Amino acid sequence: MEVPDQGIYEKENWPAPEKNKAAMISRLDLHVGKIMETLQKYKLDGQTIVFFTSDNGPHKEGGNDPKFFDSQGGLRGIKRDLYEGGIRVPMIVRWPGKIKAGAASDFPWAFWDFLPTAAEIIKAKSPKDIDGISVLPTLLGKDAEQKQHDFFYWEFHENGSKQAVRMGDWKAVRLAPGNPLELYDLKTDLGETNNIAGTNPEIISRVEDYLKSARTESEAWPLKSPPAKKAAAANSEP
Q1: What does the pLDDT read at residue 229?
Q2: Beta bridge partners of 174
Q3: Structural domain tally of the chain?
Q4: For each of the chain's 238 residues, which pLDDT tens digit applies?
Q5: What gap in Å lies between CA 48 and CA 39, rounded to an integer?
Q6: Which of 30, 45, 101, 164 sits between 20 and 30 A of 129, alpha carbons compared?
């Protein structure tokens, strides 16, 4: 965490990376506050919708330990993983007069839903042939009017290709091309600790069928296996 100083955390009995992380979060809070104050100053507060979220879960970069502050919150995985700890993040939306303060929803949606949502808010047409759906009904508390995704799909290509699919409460993860799918029931196992692929062949079959059409083949992003690990050099006596 590249911060100019550790601020109020300087004297805490924490490792330096954790002090830096805490200082970074405090600076973020400060500047979000400045944005909100500016909206109020120019009398835009009541007609501005604010979305706040993150693009991934916690990470280990710069010596940071996600477990130090329990940044995973009981979820499995971190940034660059396709388990929930890597991709499940909160979305905070503030819309005075429209969204009730303190309201909460567990409706799952993703970044690709933001564009059609914003388009519907401003009464514009959303582009055709995109994966996103508008979640405006959920924001307004009109759950009965909300469309839902049949599937969510993710892939990640650093150090090999990983894939993940969510279908309702079912979550499937493939750690490398050709590997068997892992399967988890997020309703009862949000931490993805119990792989139940072996006892749910019909769900695995549905996910496999979906994966045949989930992606468009790309030369830039081919599905590839992780690089082979180099064998450690054997010790030898002179």
Answers
A1: 76
A2: 163
A3: 1
A4: 789 999 999 999 999 999 999 999 999 999 999 999 999 999 999 999 999 999 999 999 989 999 999 999 999 999 999 999 999 999 999 999 999 899 999 999 999 999 999 999 999 999 999 999 999 999 999 999 999 999 999 999 998 999 999 999 999 999 999 999 999 999 999 999 999 999 999 999 999 999 999 999 999 999 999 988 766 555 555 4
A5: 8
A6: 164
Which residue range(s) make up the domain with 129?
Answer: 109-148
Closest by Cα among 144, 153, 155 to 220: 155
In the chain, the DSSP E strands lie at 50-53, 91-94, 152-156, 162-167, 170-174, 182-185
**Whether 101 contacts 141, CB under 8 Å:** no
Exposure string for 70-107, b = 16+ CB within 10 A, e = fewer: ebbeebbbbbebbbbbbbbeebebebeeebeeeeeeee
Is residue 124 in a domain?
A: yes
- Residue 141 maps to a domain: yes
Neighbours of 177 (CB within 10 A): 14
CB-CB contact of 223 with 156 (8 Å): no
Write phi, then psi, for 93 (nearest 5 degrees): -125, 130
CA dihedral (115, 121, 127, 130) in degrees, to 10, reads: 50
CA distance 62 to 21: 10
Instruction: Tell me whether residue 118 is in a domain.
Output: yes
Nearest to 66 by CA among 46, 51, 80, 53: 80
Q: List the structure tokens of 205.
A: 């079959």
